[in-house]
Amino acid sequence: MKPTFMGASTKQGYEIAAKSREIVRSLIDEKTKDLTSEERSIVERIVHSTADPEYADITRMSSDFVQQSLEAVSQGKDILTDISMVKAGINKYPGNIYCYISDERAVNLAREQEITRAAAAMELAAVEGFEGVVVIGNAPTALWKVMELVEAGSMNVKSVIGVPVGFVGAAESKKALAETLIPHLVTEGPKGGTPVAVAAINSLINISRNER
């Protein structure tokens, strides 16, 4: 049997995935020519997962993002997500994956502080001693909170995949992250979401696994 590739685990699935990747590469080859092989793999997976070549134009990574993320993933550091759907999409990771948005403590904290549950979930993660990679695909308020916690020295973040989607606060939060020293991957503008976040982190996990 051929190895799992882009979610494929059968001969037919592998052939479809391989053909898809060939098409993706033909669409974004010129746009990604200046990226490293790892960065290119991440962008390819995002485009493959969304069927949207524009992500090759709007995906931005800090120069230290890949190195810091792969180091964290290879060491099995924790992964923290903003919503359950992002957590559910992460596969074949031997480390812990956390999402506190439905935790009763986060719900109560959100009510007490009059903030979103997504933001409260980040605060709870910090209290719980989170250390690792943060993956945010939906909630700008979670991304703002992570930046606030890192700046205050309350959260030990190795890197952040910050790709919240939407027209209220998403673009602004990603622009703010891009201006920090936190190793990061962002998508410019309102585009993003669960498929993008999941594709990025799964690509890193796959690269780390293949390097071992």
TrEMBL record:
<keyword id="KW-0169">Cobalamin biosynthesis</keyword>
<protein>
    <submittedName>
        <fullName>Cobalt-precorrin-8X methylmutase</fullName>
        <ecNumber>5.4.1.-</ecNumber>
    </submittedName>
</protein>
<comment type="similarity">
    <text>Belongs to the CobH/CbiC family.</text>
</comment>
<dbReference type="GO" id="GO:0016993">
    <property type="term" value="F:precorrin-8X methylmutase activity"/>
</dbReference>
<dbReference type="Pfam" id="PF02570">
    <property type="entry name" value="CbiC"/>
</dbReference>
<feature type="domain" description="Cobalamin biosynthesis precorrin-8X methylmutase CobH/CbiC">
    <location>
        <begin position="15"/>
        <end position="206"/>
    </location>
</feature>
<comment type="pathway">
    <text>Cofactor biosynthesis; adenosylcobalamin biosynthesis.</text>
</comment>
<dbReference type="InterPro" id="IPR003722">
    <property type="entry name" value="Cbl_synth_CobH/CbiC"/>
</dbReference>
<keyword id="KW-0413">Isomerase</keyword>
<dbReference type="InterPro" id="IPR036588">
    <property type="entry name" value="CobH/CbiC_sf"/>
</dbReference>
<dbReference type="GO" id="GO:0009236">
    <property type="term" value="P:cobalamin biosynthetic process"/>
</dbReference>
